């Protein structure tokens, strides 16, 4: 994620439970999506799973972004 500085990510991974959980959720969804995208064709069930995984990734990324914004504000103060 291009908005996430490595130093801030490291700190949040250690100190912020929700951030850590969301990062793990995003990575897991991304890994599964990559597995699905390697298949030449998807079943109807896999197609639905692909859509849900994309939504999961987006929700996680949006929440991660808000956490990073909040952490950046607090770091500036």
**Count of discrete alpha- or pi-helical segments spanning 4 or more residues:** 3
Number of strands: 0
Q: What is the average per-residue confidence, as pLDDT, rounded to a whole number?
A: 95
Strand residues, percent: under 5%
**What share of the residues lie within helices?**
over 70%
The class by helix and strand makeup works out as mainly alpha
Whole-angstrom Rg:
15 Å
Q: Order of SSEs, N→C? A: HHH
Q: Could you explain how this protein is built, in words?
A:
With 77 residues, this protein is mainly alpha-helical. It is 83% helix and 0% strand. The protein is built from three helices and no strands. It has helices spanning 6-15, 17-37, 44-76. α1 (6-15) packs across α2 and α2 (17-37) runs antiparallel to α3 (44-76). The longest helix has 33 residues, at 44-76. It is elongated, with a radius of gyration of 15 Å. The two termini are 24 Å apart. 8% of the residues are buried. The model has no long low-confidence stretch (mean pLDDT 95).
């Amino acid at each position: 994620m291009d908005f996430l500085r490595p130093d801030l990510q490291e700190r949040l991974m250690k100190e912020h439970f929700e951030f850590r959980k969301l990062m793990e959720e995003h990575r897991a969804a991304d890994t599964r999506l990559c597995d699905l995208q390697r298949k030449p064709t998807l079943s109807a069930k896999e197609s639905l799973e692909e859509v849900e995984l994309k939504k999961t990734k987006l929700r996680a990324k949006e929440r991660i972004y808000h956490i990073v914004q909040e952490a950046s504000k607090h770091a500036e103060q």
